[in-house]
């Protein structure tokens, strides 16, 4: 509930990074990681704490990939559905994570609503500074997972809840 009276059906977490930009938790695959998902789950523990050990990001959570033209890095994007209890546990454990205060300055809940002024909420949030493709990945996931109605992306001024 927002303001104690408006029900929210979904919550999306992003992180405030060390460089002041918004992004999603992740990192590089290391030699001890057997595959992308092992590397991602290790990075999630480092960025978000031990509460992520209660679930595992799997290949079925994969959304997209994009190759960097200047960095020669391929970034893979995953989206995982959690229960409310899992989400709250992640938020509670994040301040004790290995990388908290270093690579990660905190977690942010994406405002998946529009305020009465037609500007505040998601539209205002999208004006922040995002790392790489994080803004596009967020919007793509909201669309693909049917969190926002399909027509709500035109102009990005008044996204409608699904």
From TrEMBL:
GO cellular component terms attached to this protein's record: nucleolus; nucleoplasm
GO MF annotation list: 5'-(N(7)-methylguanosine 5'-triphospho)-[mRNA] hydrolase activity; IDP phosphatase activity; phosphodiesterase decapping endonuclease activity; snoRNA binding
Enzyme Commission numbers on file: 3.6.1.64
GO biological process: mRNA catabolic process; nucleotide metabolic process; sno(s)RNA catabolic process
Reactions catalysed, as given in the entry: dIDP + H2O = dIMP + phosphate + H(+); IDP + H2O = IMP + phosphate + H(+); a 5'-end (N(7)-methyl 5'-triphosphoguanosine)-ribonucleoside in mRNA + H2O = N(7)-methyl-GDP + a 5'-end phospho-ribonucleoside in mRNA + 2 H(+)
Coiled-coil parts of chain: none
Cofactors named for this entry: Co(2+)
Alphabetized UniProt keyword annotations: Nucleotide metabolism, Nucleus, RNA-binding
Compartment annotation: Nucleus, Nucleolus; Nucleus, Nucleoplasm
Chain ranges of the Nudix hydrolase domain: 1-135
Family to which the UniProt record says this protein belongs: Belongs to the Nudix hydrolase family. NUDT16 subfamily.
Protein name per Swiss-Prot or TrEMBL: U8 snoRNA-decapping enzyme
Organism in which the protein naturally occurs: Sciurus vulgaris (Eurasian red squirrel)
